[in-house]
Each structure stands twice: as structure tokens, then as C-alpha cells.
Amino acid sequence: MQSDNPTAAILVIGDEILSGRTREGNAHHLAQVLTATGFDLQEIRVVSDDHDRIVAAIRALDGTLGGGYDLLFTSGGIGPTHDDITADAVAAAHGTTVEIHPEARALLQERCDRMGMALTENRLRMARIPVGATLIDNAVSAAPGFSIGATHVMAGVPEVFRGMVDWLIPRLPGGRPVRSLSVEVRRGESDVAEDLQAVAGEFSDLSLGSYPFRDDTGWGTNLVVRGLDAARVDQAMAALKERIGL
Amino acid sequence: MQSDNPTAAILVIGDEILSGRTREGNAHHLAQVLTATGFDLQEIRVVSDDHDRIVAAIRALDGTLGGGYDLLFTSGGIGPTHDDITADAVAAAHGTTVEIHPEARALLQERCDRMGMALTENRLRMARIPVGATLIDNAVSAAPGFSIGATHVMAGVPEVFRGMVDWLIPRLPGGRPVRSLSVEVRRGESDVAEDLQAVAGEFSDLSLGSYPFRDDTGWGTNLVVRGLDAARVDQAMAALKERIGL
């Protein structure tokens, strides 16, 4: 698919995904938001809670560090415990250090006061932010995310991640949303391959894909047409339906 | 966590994951199987249906090509349509070409005969296998996966992927399964951070993690202890429960 939309990657940090304990959902949510708001998500990576691996991944993905993408979003590893090492790794990748951020500290202090809790040393860990970063609002539990270079660092707890996404994405310069149309046919993928390829050749500026599935009544295929030019997407879907006889 | 188990990565190939249309499930399933059978999954990547990106990812991940891991498992892109380009990309990464594999052709022919279908040119695409690869059995729909170097190529349709995993994994030399114990506490992560860190320091050969969550009754945290030495994992969990007062 031809696109001049900003490119993006997602980096998920978490042993619990790699061990199979938790099924990842934040990247899926953000993928939907990015597609709807005109960002071109091109890669997702999941790495373990390991300093060197996180640093290497950020350098490979953050365009301001010579990495591959205009924007990088991370999920996980910014809590109060010893295994929350994302802030330090992001700082290292960006050639800076971590300090207690006054505004982040004030946000945590305010929340602790409101809930009658002490701002302990562990809670204060969540105000450790790379020098030069700006904060991402956390409407759920106060401890902020942050942005530095092209890297936008968000929490792993799904409710908090979603809140941060809701705050952050409208503040980023997006592109044109992708129009996506799909049709389900009750045939195997092989039976529609030729028609699909013919239409894909005619509409080479769009992305045409086929996704086979199996359910109780046998095999079927979802045919999907995606592109930035809504009229072209509509034309391609009409051409596809006509060829297939729908 | 200390481990001399074989390391592994998963590469998911599919625009439909990156667009947010489909929530990825194959990597989650395989992560659980790998953990249970003594493989150390260290990275998951999702890339688009793009030849160069697939080739680059395979080279970065397949240990026999200078990549980072002992084993690489891929999901997706081996069907009969024009956007199924995984076999060509895997061949290119491994410095070989794709040919019709006689055994794969025979499997497809047999299935077509059984179902009264013609082995069309599109269906025959699924017998295109990199030269030098061995086949992975497909109990669901005949079209095989394949293994070359450290790369094991499987289908994206979940039922077929799972069938291939069931066939393949017992044939690979695994290591020791990870023992994992978890306990849920109805406290925020900050309130258990100190105890967790103390026990993690005592049991530095194990992996101790904390995973906060929020539900209807407020915040809680899952504490997880993982390691290869089952007795040590049991000891660490007992120590953790004692410190926290459970």
C-alpha cells in the first residue's frame, strides 16, 4: 500500500508475554488506534525485561537514533519494582540519565495525599524520568509515561496504557486514516487467489489481502482491501466482488 | 533467570496484525508450549507482508545465519495467494531458491483427489518450498510447513498453526521446563516492591516479577516466581509469602 503517513513501531517489554502467562493486548489496541488516525504501524517487537535487549531494540526502532521508524511506542516496565527497568533503558538508549522529575513527583505526592498514603521510596521510583523527556498524562493512577526523541513510553497495565494512548495520540501529527473494506466468501483461499491477484494488479496502489479461516461449516476466506484513497478502495472492492460473482 | 535452555524467537508475518484487524494469538499459544517444553523464548516480532522486511528479520533472528537465537518459528504467509511471500523470503534469507517439492506436491494432489478438486496452479503454490528444507506435517489441510537452518515456517491459520506446533515441537531437542508459581495479593505494586526485591536478591538465579492489575474491587498485584530448579522456585515463593504475610 502506498502511504506517506508517519511510520511507527511498538515495543512491548515483558517476560510475562514471552512466558505465555499473559496474552498481549496493548499492541493490538494501539494498532487499531494508529490505523484509524493515519499512522503506518510497520513492526511490533516483544523483548524480555533485560536492559541490553531493551536498549538495542529502542536504537533499532527509534528514527531519531538511526532506527527504522518515525515513532516508537513502548508498553510496560515503568512501575515501582526492581524489574521495572524501562526508564533506565530508554535513558541509556538516548544517551542521557534518569532523575526524579519534579512534576512527576508532584503528581505522585498529590495522589498519595488524596489517598492517605505515604510517598515511599518505591512509589517515588515512578517519578524517575530520563532527563529531557516530557510527561505523558496518566488519568488512572498518576504515575506518568514520558516521551523522548521518537520514543513514547507507556505503562503495561491495560487500563493505564489505554488512558495514555487516548491522551497522547491526538497530540501527535498523524496522517490520513486508512480505509479498509472486507468481504467474507465461503470458499477456500485457493479458489479466490486468481481473482484476487488480478484485482491487486489493477490496483497496485492499494493493499489486497486474503485471510483464510475455518469454522463449523468449513473453510472460508476474508478478502480485505486497504488504502488511503477511499474512492479507489471502493472501486477495488466493487471490482473484486464482480470478478468473484458476489 | 539462569537458563541453558535453547533460545527461541517467533516471527509473525502479517499486515492484518499490524492494521489491528486481527489480534495475534499464534505467538501466545507457542509461547506457552515453548515454556512448557524447555525452550527460552526471548523475542517476538511482527512484520508486514514485505519481502525485504521478512528477509531482514529472519537474518536477525536465525542463529545459523548469524542471528540471535537457536530457533526461529514463523507464522503466516504460506498460503496460495499473491500476498503469501514467506517461502520466497525464507529462501532468500537462507541463500537458496524455491522449487516445487515433490513430497509436498504429492500431499496436495492426494488431498485434491480425495476432495474431488483439481490441483490448480494456485493450490500448487503451496508446494513451493526452499531447496534443502524438510517438511512440517499439516494434519488439517495438507499444505505443509517447512524447516531450514534454524527457521521453522508454519501457517497463520490458528488451527493449522497449532497442528504444526503439535507435530514439530516434540521433534526438537528441548531443555528443562520452567517452573512458575504465582500468588495474587490485594495490594498495589508499590506496597510489595520492597519485599519482592529482598527475595529477588536472595534468589538471583530465579526470575521474580510483579504484574499489577485493576478490577472491580480496586488494585491488586500478581507475584510470579520462575526458574528451572523447581525446589528453588518453591523456596522463593515460600519466602515471599512469609515476608508479605500471606
Sheet with most strands: strand arrangement of chain A: 2-1-3-8-7-6
DSSP strand tally of chain A: 11
CATH topology of the largest domain in chain A: Molybdenum Cofactor Biosythetic Enzyme, Chain A
Shape verdict of chain A = elongated
In helices, the fraction of residues of chain A equals: 25-40%
For the record, what is the CATH homologous superfamily label of the largest domain in chain A?
MoaB/Mog-like domain
Protein model, in words:
Chains A, B: This is Competence/damage-inducible protein A. Chains A, B: Residues 9-176 form the MoaB/Mog domain. The structure is a homodimer of 246-residue chains. Chain A is an alpha/beta fold and 246 residues long. Chain A folds into 2 domains: 7-171, Molybdenum Cofactor Biosythetic Enzyme, Chain A, CATH 3.40.980.10; 179-244, 2-Layer Sandwich (Alpha-Beta Plaits), CATH 3.30.70. Helix content of chain A is 38%, strand content 26%. The first copy, chain A, is built from 9 helices and 11 strands. In chain A, strands 2-1-3-8-7-6 form a 6-stranded mixed beta sheet, sandwiched between helices. In chain A, strands 9-11-10 form a 3-stranded antiparallel beta sheet. The first copy, chain A, has a two-stranded antiparallel sheet with strand order 4-5. In chain A, strand 7 and strand 8 (151-154) form a beta hairpin. In chain A, helix 2 (26-37) packs parallel to helix 7 (158-168) and helix 8 (189-202) crosses helix 9. Chain A is elongated and about 70 Å long. In chain A, 50% of the residues are buried. Strand 2 (40-47) of chain A pairs antiparallel with strand 2 (40-47) of chain B, so a sheet runs across the interface.
